[in-house]
Specification:
Blueprint (H helix, E strand, L loop, with lengths): L30 H5 L2 H12 L3 E9 L5 E9 L3 E6 L5 E6 L2 E6 L4 E6 L5 H5 L10 E6 L3 E7 L1 H4 L3 E7 L5 E7 L5 E11 L12 H9 L3
Antiparallel strand pairs: 1-2, 1-11, 2-3, 3-4, 4-5, 5-6, 7-8, 8-9, 9-10, 10-11
């Protein structure tokens, strides 16, 4: 994604800034450091995989420190929606297979296969900590940080998720694109186990296709 204030993209894609949130300097986590923390990391991954739905508020920070926020909705597997507040006027929706980033102010859209974005690793049916995906685990007193990647799908892009060390609740994630630029999303006022109307994650493909063609 280009930065989310400009295009709403880095949080999801290796080459563009989709969800831009507070860039956090995570040093490269050595794979060797992950081995000793594999068991608690797997417990956290299992816990989060069992969270089927979430909603709440988010704040997003981009590679240059730009800040936006709004409301988010998540349903596993593969569905997420971000409604941006204020002047940003962005909306991001994944219906399980396709991710659409819409700039409502400019009436433009970008479309991506969810499978081609690191966000897929967050939204999968199960969080895969297989050796091919797990890049590192870091345990602190308050937080456990897990970094995942899929070089075949996303190149050098990674997603780093930070969980509360006691409750295992997801606190934030950072997507680092192929150029090393970070976009961070921080969650708060989160509610789990909610029911969503199917329309929450529906994409109007006729409208999306029209916007792509430039039909206004």
């Amino acid at each position: 994604m280009t930065n989310f204030a400009g295009r709403a993209g880095n949080l999801l894609l290796p080459r563009r800034s989709l969800l831009a949130m507070a860039a956090i300097a995570f040093g490269a986590l050595a794979a060797g450091g992950a081995s000793g923390a594999a068991q608690p990391a797997q417990q956290i991954a299992n816990h989060f995989s069992n969270v089927r739905t979430m909603t709440g508020e988010f704040v997003q920070f981009g590679p240059r420190g730009e800040q936006t926020g709004g409301k988010f909705y998540l349903e596993r597997p593969g569905k997420i929606r971000f409604d941006y507040e204020g002047a940003a006027r962005f909306q991001v929706i994944s219906d399980g297979s396709t991710l659409v980033v819409e700039n409502k102010r400019l009436n433009t859209v970008d479309i991506y296969p969810l499978s081609k974005t690191p966000l897929k690793l967050l939204l999968d049916e199960r969080i895969d900590l297989g050796s091919a995906n797990l890049q590192g685990v870091q345990q602190d007193e308050d937080l456990t940080t897990i970094t995942l990647a899929d070089r075949q799908m996303f190149g050098n892009a990674t997603i780093t998720m930070m969980f509360d060390a006691q409750s295992y609740d997801l606190r934030q994630w950072t997507i680092t694109d192929a150029q090393g630029k970070d976009t961070t999303v921080m969650l708060f006022n989160v509610e789990e186990g909610v029911r969503f109307d199917p329309s929450v994650f529906s994409i109007d493909y006729r409208r999306v296709n029209s916007l792509q063609r430039g039909d206004n």
